[in-house]
Amino acid sequence: MVSNIFSKEKNKSSLSSKIFNVLRDNILEGKYAHDEKLIEVKLAQELGVSRTPVREALKQLELEGLVENIPNKGVVVKGISKQDISDIYAIRLAIEGIAVEWAMERMSDEDVEKLKEIYELMEFYTLKKDYLKISELNTQFHEVIYKATKSRYLEQVLKDFQYYIKTTRNKSLRTPGRLESALEEHREILDAFIARDPQKARAVLENHIDVSKLNALKLED
């Protein structure tokens, strides 16, 4: 099915982007092992495409730090390490507080309503123990805040971080009690936005990131 989709794509740039997305997902989801060699010809055959867009996709993955092109060995998977996860959460802690303050200043009543709607869905799916749906809603909740900053640079950086830790977050939500505690943390964030209290919002969000980081790193031990 993947090859059929790719075979219809005529724009080489768009094709390499699609291949990049597929390979990136495979790396982040652990379908390729750490230090596994990615062979250009084999990938092209599996995806039903020529080698050129695969080569371009691999170059983009190298720029993202997800693979490394080693002389006399080829392209190998680096993925996301425990240190990477720790760094991502540390950077989120530093800049997501700024995002909250900017969002508080610039967000509309409609944005707050979106947060309420997403939170209510999180409550529903928490009761159903639907981990994947909760993870998706978690991302949506934070992206409403990012978008409300009206800063496309800050929004894009934070969205990228969310993407790179999604697999770790999915695992973390399955640890005993984490689903319920994460819901409560989002309730506190929502309440702070409803009250239009930037200091409270920053404090509860930073606590949420700290707790998420600790849970994520435990899974990497």
Automatic annotation (TrEMBL):
Xref: SMART domains: FCD (SM00895), HTH_GNTR (SM00345)
Domain HTH gntR-type, first and last residues per copy: 13-80
Single GO MF annotation: DNA binding
Record-linked InterPro entries: GntR_C, TF_FadR/GntR_C, Tscrpt_reg_HTH_GntR, WH-like_DNA-bd_sf, WH_DNA-bd_sf
Keyword Hydrolase in annotation: no
PROSITE patterns on file: HTH_GNTR (PS50949)
Domain of life per record: Bacteria
Protein name: HTH gntR-type domain-containing protein
UniProtKB keywords: DNA-binding, Transcription, Transcription regulation
Key word Protein transport present: no
Gene3D superfamilies in UniProt: GntR ligand-binding domain-like (1.20.120.530), Winged helix-like DNA-binding domain superfamily/Winged helix DNA-binding domain (1.10.10.10)
